[in-house]
């Protein structure tokens, strides 16, 4: 929602931050992969220090860096379809790593799994629509998109560890936060699916698909 509604204000900020990377000669794909490495390093380090607050702070830096790949692409004129595809795949692995760490920290694996499923279905609902009809990638202002998910989870980790950890409430706060996250991601997946359904309905009414040719009974048999 943040990116969809405020993209014209957010993009110039990212471009200012990305200029040093572009001046250093980094390509957008290199920035994307560096972001993946930073997330993986933070999650791996968590297995040693076991501080969710430190993990949350580290992921803030990692995801801020990850958000710069699109800005570098615009500055250097290197936007490509392959780069967009790479970025989308890397995003899914980053979310998987983060949710695995949170599932381990909270031991609330059902909530972590349901939250991850909601996040993935939110992404899939748009991607599957794009197979059927051309879509504007920036006009899907749904409630809990990737940027909101990252902000929520990083804030949850920092607050649970730094504010509630000293009171012995770190795990209950993490568990409650993950269940709330799961509810919000799945609500957003359904919200996006409803938006896609309406878009497809309008297209079907204005330009229905031709009837499919009946398939011979023996077609495809060896």
Polypeptide structure, described:
- With 222 residues, the protein is mainly alpha-helical.
- The chain has one domain: Up-down Bundle (Four Helix Bundle (Hemerythrin (Met), subunit A)).
- It contains 8 helices and no strands.
- It has helices at 2-23, 28-49, 52-66, 69-76, 81-106, 109-132, 146-163, 170-206.
- Helix 2 (28-49) runs parallel beside helix 5 and helix 7 runs antiparallel to helix 8 (170-206).
- The N and C termini lie far apart (50 Å).
- The relative contact order is 0.12.
- The mean pLDDT is 88.
Short description:
By secondary structure, the chain is mainly alpha-helical. The chain is built from eight helices and no strands. The longest helix is centred in the last third of the chain and has 37 residues.
What labels would you give this structure?
single chain; 222 residues; mainly alpha; Four Helix Bundle (Hemerythrin (Met), subunit A); 8 helices; 77% helix
The Cα radius of gyration reads 20 Å
Overall pLDDT, averaged? 88
- The separation of the N and C termini measures 50 Å
* Main sheet summary: none
What would CATH call the homologous superfamily?
CDP-alcohol phosphotransferase transmembrane (TM) domain
Task: Return residue spans where pLDDT drops below 50 for at least 5 consecutive residues.
Answer: none
Class in CATH?
Mainly Alpha
SSE series: HHHHHHHH
């Amino acid at each position: 929602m943040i990116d969809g509604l405020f993209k014209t204000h957010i993009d110039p900020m990212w471009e200012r931050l990305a200029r040093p990377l572009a001046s250093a000669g980094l390509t957008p794909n290199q920035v994307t992969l560096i972001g993946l490495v930073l997330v993986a390093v933070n999650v791996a380090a968590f297995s040693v220090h076991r501080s969710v607050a430190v993990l949350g702070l580290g992921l803030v830096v990692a995801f801020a860096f990850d958000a710069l790949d699109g800005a570098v692409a615009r500055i250097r004129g290197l936007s490509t379809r392959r780069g967009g595809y790479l970025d989308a795949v890397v995003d899914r692995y980053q979310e998987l790593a983060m949710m695995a760490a949170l599932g381990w920290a909270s031991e609330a694996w059902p909530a972590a799994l349901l939250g991850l499923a909601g996040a993935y279905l939110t992404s899939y609902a748009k991607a599957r629509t794009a197979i059927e009809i051309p879509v504007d990638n920036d006009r899907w202002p749904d409630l809990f998109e990737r940027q909101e998910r990252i902000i929520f989870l990083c804030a949850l980790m920092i607050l649970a560890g730094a504010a509630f950890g000293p009171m012995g409430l770190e795990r209950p706060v993490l568990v409650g936060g993950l269940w709330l996250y799961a509810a919000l991601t799945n609500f957003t997946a359904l919200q996006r699916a409803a938006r896609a359904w309406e878009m497809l309905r309008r297209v079907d009414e204005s330009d229905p698909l031709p009837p499919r040719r009946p398939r011979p009974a023996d077609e495809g048999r060896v």
